[in-house]
Design goal:
AraC family transcriptional regulator; Arc Repressor Mutant, subunit A; alpha+beta; 5-stranded antiparallel sheet; transcription regulation; DNA-binding; Jelly Rolls; globular; 2 domains; activator; 4-stranded antiparallel sheet; HTH-like
């Protein structure tokens, strides 16, 4: 299955995510700063980020009026089983990520192909899916010939700590809890979060909780007090202050703007 989504600055979340499929981020307007497996990358208009499965990413900043198209696809769906055995299986989760620049001649051709795939996926043509599949197969062929950017040492520990935080975001987590999930000391845990996400463990916990609060405010009719209660806050005023610190507006103002 191939999907395409359009992301704006209002839709980009700042929590860590692990890519579960082959993804292509094509920036068409504004700039985006993202950490990929701990490495900071800036994406300008016309650039594309290609992510293999299992890459740990965190968006740090997106400019106002930002616009990006995101293609997600299982590369096994691009080829017949015989070809997939030769050209997908040996490479999946081994090719890391790649940043394509329009100033590089070979990248420019690939970016044009990605743009064609996006336009076909957004069209009503009866052959849109077929055309996009063929174009993305060409992109995959190009990508597997590139030198891979591999995941840094410590990825598994960081991934376990991130998963633990997301699975327990309604609980009052301590630094000891998070460090234990990664099999680290408290000091080592702090160094990991600083290196991989330019943040601290507890600051990231608050960020995750406030991202969830934002979704609840937009997707439900829950009162602010109920949202605060679901996230484990005993004080509504404390919840409002924390939310405003992350989103630069009160929960009610945020809901009004987004709905």
């Amino acid at each position: 299955m191939i999907t395409v989504e359009t992301w704006t600055e209002q839709m980009v979340e700042t929590s860590f995510t692990t890519s579960s499929s082959f993804q292509i981020w094509l920036v068409t307007k504004g700039r985006l700063t993202v950490r990929i497996n701990g490495t900071r990358v800036r994406l300008d208009p016309g650039m594309a980020l290609m992510l293999d499965c299992g890459q740990l990413t965190r968006v740090e900043r997106a400019e106002d009026s930002f616009h990006m198209d995101v293609i997600s696809v299982d590369p096994f769906d691009l080829f017949s089983p015989f070809l997939a055995e030769q050209y997908v299986t040996p490479y999946i989760e081994r090719i890391g990520y790649y940043v394509a620049h329009s100033s590089v001649p070979t990248d420019k051709a690939m970016l044009d192909t990605i743009d064609k795939a996006v336009r076909r996926l957004k069209s009503d043509s009866a052959f849109a899916l077929l055309d996009a599949t063929l174009q993305l197969a060409v992109v995959w062929r190009y990508w597997i010939q590139r030198t891979p950017v591999m995941r840094q040492h410590g990825y598994d520990r960081m991934d376990r700590m991130i998963s633990y935080i997301h699975d327990h975001d309604t609980m009052k987590l301590s630094l000891e809890d998070i460090a234990a999930a990664g099999g680290l000391s408290r000091a080592e845990c702090c160094r990991y979060f600083s290196k991989w996400g330019d943040t601290s463990p507890l600051a990231y916990v608050q960020d995750v909780r406030m991202q969830r609060a934002a979704r609840l405010l937009c997707e439900t009719d829950l009162a602010v007090a109920e949202v605060a209660n679901q996230l484990g806050f005993t004080s509504v005023s404390h919840f409002v202050q924390t939310f405003k610190k992350i989103h630069n507006r009160t929960p009610l103002a945020y809901r009004k703007q987004k709905t």
